[in-house]
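Section 5.1 Outputs to date
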Amino acid sequence: MAENDVNIIALNLAETTDYGIVRMVVGRPVLAKEALEKAGFSIGLTDVACVNMADEPGALHQVLKVLTEAGFNVDYMYAFSNNDVALAVIRAENIPGVTDLLEEQGMKLLSQRDIYQL
């Protein structure tokens, strides 16, 4: 990604017996997709929500509780913290519904621009 000036902000790796899946949050996702496809990888772009929360016990639980009580299932997520801020990247079937709900609950979501500047 470096040779294409694409910054990897977050990365998650999962494997099965037959293949691996790498999920990334990157700056310049279209360019990253094109570069990886050119290198022979199967690529898909997926919408996710990125929640900014306090880096303290129970913060992630509160986010997941709100989603669960509203009937949302989390397909996958990854979370990390840096400089007293915790972020969770969440994939669910209805991302617009997830983001609307979390914002209604007063939770701060990061925009694409915010994410790319991490």
